[in-house]
């Protein structure tokens, strides 16, 4: 947030009034402004140096009139005054007046590469001028090339692709294939799921507001493993038991399949409880069924941590369906399965006129290349994690936020008027959406009650878009500038920092702090020293070194601790030019470079690589942090949960407002946890922060045990 000290009237003058604007135009006066104009908090949209072409087409009113007269009355629009969107570029949309909007919905999780991404557009144009449609009755390389590329993104034996034109069609086909392959009819889907709206898929969709009163046979709906609203909270195994019961008491004991979204999209970005899918997977296998992953919303790198959503659940499905992000907006869907299962379709003719259309598949291939080259999966992970953290922080400020959830750039914020009762605040969602639109930000909504913001932007979304505004980090960085100006000659030797302060109590540096400090130090002629003693060697999970989470490259990096897995060893790494200064005198260290220590160091690097410990620190650390954050709702004594990877901190306070350190309670909980068999550290200036920095081979069960022990110990306080 940028705190304007000028009046709104004058701030408005910063923005161009021409029809072709590069910047967002600020509304006359948004409802969320405070009454005090001098201190109003006004979000500022990040710069985007692009001017859309002037629009001369029909205006909103005329389109709305035509739509009312000639299009289905079932079609609805967002916003009291619907937007006429006429142009798009990357993560931005433009209306008929050239006003720019930050697109936080991405055409419903579809425009993954960014609006009108030049590579995708070019692929479409190139293909269109050659041959636009021929059907798969003739050979054409576009469909074959894309099928090959898509299959290469799949694990296991998932190598055969059928193209369709939508997610609904893909799921219809997947359900039919599973019925044919197993000879069974019964399919199980989750309550609150959305899988499409044709005859079969409407049966699998399980929200009454999306189900028409027509025949929808052969689908059973199991309890939704919804950690926020579900009966068993985050206990995936208990929900999984319902699938077992359903098969035993509601079917012949054999089923055709189980269809699921790794994160429910239309249902309101609902993550499946941990441990649910592996249990359900084995239940379905025992009942002879196939597992179908509906990746229509989760696929194509959206969840950040993996390319496919199901990969976050440690299973490999038998059939994967996809659409939305597959073609960045071009109508396309697909079903991928194994060669053996795919054979069932040879029993009759199976044909789809537009399926595998060369223009659509050329777009699909371009999408895969863009995701790869522009590292959109990594970006979805980094920006999504950052955005989620900022949204979680908002929860402390606004009681109306009941839950923040999701993964990567598939995030949900559920509004409730009462946190205890979880009363859906759907009217407020509409109000906030409208107000955000006035400020230039578009988000979606969903959930059974319509009370969940769905944040599914193009995957090129960046941290400025996520924060959208000046972050506190920039203000802190200003202090370094002042310090140099008023406390030194104006030149400094250097700046030393921990990417996450360890002994200080796992304190993360505010977003945007380091890039700003970096340039300040450079201007003052100094070197930037990253002290990686605690953060290095894969501990933060997202990167091997902590400084890499701050988008800077330091001049000197220091390390110890994790370098030798416990053997006494430390190191300083710098550039050849800087290193030369030590040749001015003798520099010697008796044990520095000791062969035993350095042999251990080399072994450590190999183990981290081979055992994928960085990945594990990320996966288990993210899971552990989420569980610790959930504990915060239960125990008022938890003031803050923070950190990254397996470098986590839990700060205890006796009063959340005053942040009074609860150091005695930390000792008590530590002792009680020890009695239960769990050891954690403590730190922070006041000694009131648990430091959770286990070996990086820690697994999810270990994480569960730690959280359960902490929960139990805190309950006794
Ligand atoms: C998870 C999921 N599956 C299937 C579908 C249906 O896709 P389509 O609208 O392309 O038919 C959707 C649409 O939102 C979806 O979110």
UniProtKB/TrEMBL annotation:
| Cellular localization per UniProt | Mitochondrion
Cofactor requirement: pyridoxal 5'-phosphate
GO molecular function annotations of the record: alanine-glyoxylate transaminase activity; pyridoxal phosphate binding
Enzyme class, broadest EC rank: transferase
Q: Could you tell me the superkingdom of the organism this chain comes from?
A: Eukaryota
Name any one Pfam family assigned in the record: Aminotran_3
User: Which keywords does this chain's UniProt record carry?
Assistant: Aminotransferase, Mitochondrion, Pyridoxal phosphate, Transferase, Transit peptide
The record's InterPro entries line, in alphabetical order, gives: Aminotrans_3 (IPR005814), Aminotrans_3_PPA_site (IPR049704), PyrdxlP-dep_Trfase (IPR015424), PyrdxlP-dep_Trfase_major (IPR015421), PyrdxlP-dep_Trfase_small (IPR015422)
Is Acetylation found in the keyword set? Answer: no
EC number annotated for this UniProt entry = 2.6.1.44
Give the principal location in a single coarse category: mitochondrion
- SUPFAM superfamilies, sorted: PLP-dependent transferases
Q: Does the keyword Metal-binding apply?
A: no
Q: Which GO terms describe its cellular component?
A: mitochondrion
Oligomeric and partner information: Homotetramer.
Record's PANTHER family?
A: ALANINE--GLYOXYLATE AMINOTRANSFERASE 2-LIKE, PTHR45688
Concerning its family, UniProt says: Belongs to the class-III pyridoxal-phosphate-dependent aminotransferase family.
Q: What is this protein called?
A: alanine--glyoxylate transaminase
Source organism per UniProt: Artemisia annua
